[in-house]
Amino acid sequence: EVRLEQSGAEVKKPGESLKISCKGSGYNFSYKWIGWVRQMPGKGLEWMAIIYPDGSDTRYSPSFQGQVTISADKSINTAYLQWASLKASDTAIYYCARLRSSWPEAAFEFWGQGTMVTVSS
Amino acid sequence: SYELTQPPSVSVSPGQTARITCSGEALPNQYAYWYQQRPGQAPVLVISKDSERPSEIPERFSGSSSGTTATLTISGVQAEDEADYYCQSSPSSSSYAVFGTGTKVIVL
Predict the structure, then answer these.
(1) What is the pLDDT averaged over residues A92-103?
(2) What are the backbone angles phi and psi of residue A90, rounded to the nearest 5°?
């Protein structure tokens, strides 16, 4: 059974750094693209970035390029999303999700439970 | 940047057919994907590559695409189909992807 287990909720102050995680199990983590999706409170889904763990090839949405960094450690089957300096507007639920097939076939078939990030002074 | 436009809401009576459209300039050349999201839950893929339905998704869900518009059709709508629906596609191969603006399906 494919599972994506995300790290727990975070409460941070503006300007702080953060790294959230997503651990995959039940499949060969190295060879499946995995990505992150943002959902701000009461709003729609936003595609952020994806990574191929074996080789670390990445794709970013222009809206998030330079704002976040996606990475992966295939030795522990874990993907990450990190911020160097959080803003209040980063408050959202962040989902990790795994592609059904291979990029550029872009369907996210498996999803994590979501990580709530709250940024407030 | 690239945008996919959906109607904000679609209202339908139980047993009737709901059609949700997704408009985007690159859809003639790129696949569309569709997701269902119920409140407080993660999204679920309901249609892949314009019209492929995952095996676990009920047959009443179907997809099509023509020109710059992709369409998700829910035939014989049930109360449990009340949810937000999002399309997804890309502006070109291998670049990045975007989600549509989202459509709330209201079952009357």
Answers:
(1) 95
(2) -85, -5
The two tokens of residue B53 are 């339905």
> What span, in angstroms and rounded, lies between the C-alpha atoms of A104 and B50?
14
Structure tokens at B95: 């670049």
Half-sphere exposure of B60 (CA within 13 A, CB side): 14
Whether the CB of B89 is below 8 Å from some CB of chain A: the reply is yes
Name the 3-class secondary structure at B97. coil
CA distance A2 to A70: 21
The pLDDT, as a whole number, for residue A72 is: 96
How many residue contacts between A and B have a Cβ separation below 8 Å?
70
Amino acid letter, B100: G
Averaged pLDDT score across all residues of chain A? 96
- CB contacts, 8 Å: B97 with chain A: 47, 61, 106
Q: How far is A102 from chain B (nearest CA, A)?
A: 11
